[in-house]
Amino acid sequence: MSLAIPFKPKPSILPGFGLSLGITLTGLSLIVLIPLAALLLRAASADPNEILELVTSARTLAALRLSFGAAFLAALLNAVFGLMIAWLLVRHEFPGKRLVDAAIDLPFALPTAVAGVALAAIYAPNGWIGGLVAPLGVKIAYTPAGVFIAMVFVGMPFVIRTVQPVLAEAETDVEEAAALLGASRMRIVFTVILPGVMPALLTGFVLAFARAIGEYGSVIFIAGNVPMVSEILPLLIVIRLEQFDYAGAAVIATLMLVVAFVLIAAINALQGWTRHRLGDA
Q1: In a structure prediction context, what are the per-residue pLDDT tens digits for the chain, which is 281 residues long?
Q2: Which of 98, 167, 174, 179 could pair with 90 as two cysteines, CB 3.0-4.6 Å apart?
Q3: Does residue 21 belong to any structural domain of this protein?
Q4: pTM, to two decimals
Q5: For the chain, what is the domain count?
Q6: What are the DSSP calls for 105-145, one per residue?
C-alpha cells in the first residue's frame, strides 16, 4: 500500500507572487479586458447586414486607409529622424542642447486640441509655412498631408525617448575600433550602430504608430474632415456617437481595433525576430 505524497510547490525566491499576480490580473481585467469585451459585445449586437454595409462602405474604407496609411508613414519618418535627433542629443554637445531636449516632450505636455490649433495656424494657407507654399499651389492644411504632419508631431517623442537611453548606454569602443580598421561612416552606422539600437527603434516605431492611429484632437483641426478625403476613423466614431448610433460606433471601433492589433502584432513579431537574430550573432 503506497501513500500518496501531496504535491508541494517550490517556494518562490521573491515573496508575494500570488498577491502580485492577482492584483495584476484584476487591474488588467478592469482597465483593458472588460472594456474591450463590452466593445465587442456591443458591436456584435448590431444587425449583420448593417455591420457588413458599414465596414465595407466607401467612406469607412477611405478613413481606414488614411488613418493607418498616414500613421504608418508618420511612424517611419519618426523612426528615421527620431534616431538622428537621439544620436545628436547623446553624442554631441551644442548651444541650446537642453532647450532642444526639453522641447521634444512638448507633444506629451500640450493638450491635443492646442496642438491641433497650433498646427492648423502654421500650415493653413495664411499661416507661416502654409503661406510660403500656397503661391506654389501646394496646400498642406485641410488635406491628408495635414493629417500626416499632425501624426508626425505627436509620434516623434516616442521614438526619441525610446532610442535615447540605448544610445547613451552603448559603448563607443566598437565604433572607434571599426573606424581605426578603416570602416567608412556609413558602414559603421549600418553594421555597428543600427544592430544595437534596432530593438529599441522598433519599439519606438510601434509606440509612435499606435499613438498616431488613435490620435484625434490634434488631427481634426488640421485635417479639414472632408468625407472620402481627410476623414480619420476616430472622427467617424465620434460622428456615430453624436447620432446616438452606439452600435455603429462600436462596429467601427472594433474594425479599428482588429486592424491595429494585427499590424502591431506583426511588428512585434518582427521585433522579436530581430532580437533573436542579434542574440545569435
Answers
A1: 455 555 555 665 666 667 787 888 888 888 878 888 888 888 888 888 888 888 899 999 999 999 999 999 999 999 999 999 999 998 888 898 899 898 998 888 888 889 899 999 999 988 889 888 888 888 999 999 999 999 999 999 999 999 999 888 877 777 777 777 777 777 777 777 787 888 889 889 999 998 999 889 889 999 988 889 999 999 999 999 999 988 889 999 999 888 888 888 888 787 777 777 766 55
A2: 167
A3: no
A4: 0.83
A5: 1
A6: THHHHS-HHHHHHHHHHHHSTTSTTHHHHGGGT---TTSHH
